[in-house]
Amino acid sequence: MLGIRATSAPSRRSAPRDAARAGTRGVAGTGSAPTPARAENGRARLVDPSRVAVAGHSVGGASTLPSLLADSRIRAGIDIDGTTQVPVPDSGLSRPFLFLGRQSQYTPGSGGGAVATWERDWRHLTGWKRWLVVSGAEHASFTDVGLLAEQLGIDIGAGLPAARVSEIVRRYTRAFLQQHLRHLPQPLLDKPSARYPQVLFCAPESGTCV
Predict the structure, then answer these.
(1) Is the pTM here over 0.70, yes or no?
(2) If DSSP codes are grouped into helix, strand and coil, which group holds residue 88?
(3) Which of 34, 58, 69, 117 is the most exposed place for a label (fewest CB within 10 A)?
(4) Contact, 172 vs 132, CB < 8 A?
């Protein structure tokens, strides 16, 4: 995950591109400007530059594709419920990519602006790729907001408990990173799981999810 502290509010259209440029400069390699952590603690040595991926939710998710396009050192990416803003070019993107979103918004063939952006970019992803949707989830379900809302008695409209969505996000994100950064095959990513029946595997070409 990349954390970016903005000094001004970028436009909605430019935010993913700007975040990608700012976030990958010091994370995917040595970077040009030393940070206090690097200078004082040498923490940069803990980062293996050959095993870097990006993952994000919402606008953070929308930033993952531009990050991959901007920096070849990034090996893989995950977009969690984020409408993409920067199209993948016709030349394509061959690095592994995972779309993970709510069923109500990102079921292929359902129409609407959000899912159309995933459909547009899916066609140009030429490497390993998966399109997964979670039934009963809402946008806030994928973050701590869902957990906090439940504790406060606030209804966010989700049919699936936030703790369950958090478990799904952790489990599938971990499997993706293990497979594509550590080259450890993960059967969880191959087909639907009886342990996680709320996670549906989508085939945009046929408009089906199972």
Answers:
(1) yes
(2) coil
(3) 34
(4) yes
